[in-house]
Amino acid sequence: TLICLLQPTEPEDFDEGNTIEVDRISALPETLIHHILSFVPTLDVVRMSLLSRRWRHMWRSVPLDQRRNDMLNVTDTSVTSFKLDIKFYPFNITTIDHWLNLATHRSKVKELDLCIRTEVPRKSYYSHHDLFTLNSFTSLKLCGMTFNSLHSLSFPSLISLSLENVRLDDQFRTRALSFWKSFMGIISQLLRLKLLQSFVYNGGPFYCDLNLSSCETLTHLSLSNLKFENEWLEDLVYELPLLESLSLWNCNYLLSDFSMTATNMLQVNVKLHNPRSHAMQWYFNLLDFLINLDCSRSLSLHIHSEEALILPSKFRRVCRSPLPTLKHLKVWTDCLLSSNSGLRDALLWIAPSLETLSIERPESLSV
Amino acid sequence: MSSSSTTTTTTRLLMLKASDGVTFEVEEAVATKLGAINNMVEEEGSEDLICLPNVNGKFLGMVLEWCKKHANNNTNSDKGNDEVNKWWDKEFVMDLDQNTLYHLLMAADYLSGTELVDLLTEKVASMIRGKKVEEIRETFKIKSDFLPGQEEEIRKKNSWAFE
């Protein structure tokens, strides 16, 4: 009997006379190149990006668990920006620990961007060591991490802060409501930063009482998945005179009965909540809400269905346009658009002075 | 009769056939140093002829030479043998040219000879470590195919590595 291992490939020419000047190493499969590079000091690997185009990005693609952990000397010197984007599995905890150590200890990193992705929401990376022994950060972006405490925080130089799915230890959470109180309290403490210009926060769908009033220099604010009282946002915008950009994603139901004055506003982005029905009340609330956004030069609206923005003609006869001075409007939608739905007409009625109007949907839905 | 039958069952021979038709007859204990062969022997059980269409006879011969050395030395496992093995490995990879190194590495990888892959990749790494880019290009005959300005851009982007 005869058995074969895999399929034959093209017959190869093994004549050494012809192959003496041939670049063999670049022809190796990537897995073998990674294997080779796992025996080479990281600095040499990075330098190899100058060999040829094939090698240009090779050092980036070496899997973390195959990399040599010899970056300490590098971080000691001149690295000021550190970004780690990694999937979290229980088996790579030590690798993540190691990289965070490098980034945060005895380094000159000013911009730290940590994204630790997890597919199981309840199991996220637990930071064992104290990230925050450094206070030289100017930009801090954390995604998908659990801390046992965020105490003793001090970031006097922080200009940009982004927190996505950052949690305190579950042990605290079991103490019910007080958990969110303490978490928000800690973030608020973190935000008592005189230099902060940008704040991005994506929490769970939880009630928010963040105190941002001390961040007078804030120009960019983005909030996702938060519930809050209208007054809270009204006060906030009032207290942030320099605010240029405001994003609200999946926050409250439509902000009806809401008023906003922001003299420096350039850009507002809102993802509208999906109503159960587009009854009269929806359109009343929508008009009420949009009136407040006329203070911005440019507006992006994300909607679930075009129906949400097509105001019935009887409204248009009776009411005034809510955005009389708006210059630029962009509408995003998840749904398929029908060509003759009247969305365009409705938008031109909503904002009659538009210079640009764009209606976009995700690539995957494009025909 | 009964006394002789006990001795003949100990070593089984496998036939390995390379892409160019060259066949090797090797002891099972030697061939199963290669993960791929080991899997096949365990799964298929009774097969004696294994055809390896991705490996040329010359390199299969070298891989098997390595296996033989290491299979033999595994049977009597005292510390002195470790040293002998290391010395032997060093000799084995010492004067390999680029072409042989490449085909040997591909063969070892294809046959899942983990230890041999380690040995060969370490050999390649030793030719890279501490070398200047120009030297690496020269050693491996790598041609730079960057567009004008691209090289400078890379230097600039990761200036910390090139200081």
Largest sheet of chain B: 3 strands, mixed
- Estimated helix fraction of chain B: 55-70%
Order of helices and strands of chain A: EHHHHHHEHEEEEHHEEHEEHEHEHE
Number of helices of chain A: 13
Side by side, the strands of the main sheet of chain B go: 2-1-3
Strand content of chain B: 5-15%
Beta-strand content of chain A: 15-25%
Q: Which term fits the overall shape of chain A?
A: globular
CATH 4th-level superfamily of chain B: Potassium Channel Kv1.1, Chain A
Task: Characterise this structure.
The complex is a heterodimer of chains A (367) and B (163). In chain A, strands 2, 3, 4, 5, 6, 7, 8, 9, 10, 11, 12 and 13 form a twelve-stranded parallel β-sheet that branches. Helices cover 27% and strands 23% of the residues of chain A. In chain A, 26% of the residues are buried. Chain A has 13 helices and 13 strands. Chain A has a domain at 27-75. By secondary structure, chain A is an alpha/beta fold. Chain B is mainly alpha-helical. Chain B is 63% helix and 9% strand. Chain B is built from ten helices and three strands. A three-stranded mixed β-sheet of chain B has the order 2-1-3. Chain B is elongated and about 65 Å long. Mean pLDDT of chain B is 85; it is low at 1-9. Classes of the chains: A alpha/beta (367), B mainly alpha (163). At the A-B interface, strand 1, helix 2, helix 3 and helix 4 of A face helix 3, strand 3, helix 6, helix 7 and helix 8 of B. Strand 1 (2-4) of chain A pairs parallel with strand 3 of chain B, so a sheet runs across the interface.
